[in-house]
Design brief:
The chain is an alpha+beta fold. Helices cover about 40% and strands about 15% of the residues.
């Protein structure tokens, strides 16, 4: 029986969904190739290709989430990047 790794599978699924939702990079564009390894996959690896700019967006989103996590700690300032402490989103 194949061992299941739902968190790894969830990450691969959402990255693949993101890749499908965005325009494909053109032939001259720089692409970001992500390989996610899991025993759940028959080949052991699942590959997702995204435009390089998407990699920058993912990195910035993760940086902001990390900053929100740090701010939520007892010694943090309690301000998340979503609302900057106002209680309302910044959209």
């Amino acid at each position: 029986m194949t061992e299941q790794h739902p968190y790894v599978d969830d990450l691969a699924d959402i990255l693949a969904e993101l890749a499908r939702a965005l325009p494909e990079p053109g032939p001259a564009a720089t692409a970001l190739h992500m390989a996610i390894n899991s025993p759940s996959y028959p080949e052991g690896t699942r590959r997702v290709e995204l435009a390089a700019e998407v990699g920058s967006w993912i990195a910035e989103t993760l940086r902001r989430e990390l900053a929100t996590h740090d701010s939520a700690q007892p010694d943090g300032d309690g301000r998340c990047w979503h609302c900057r402490g106002t209680g309302r989103g910044t959209r």
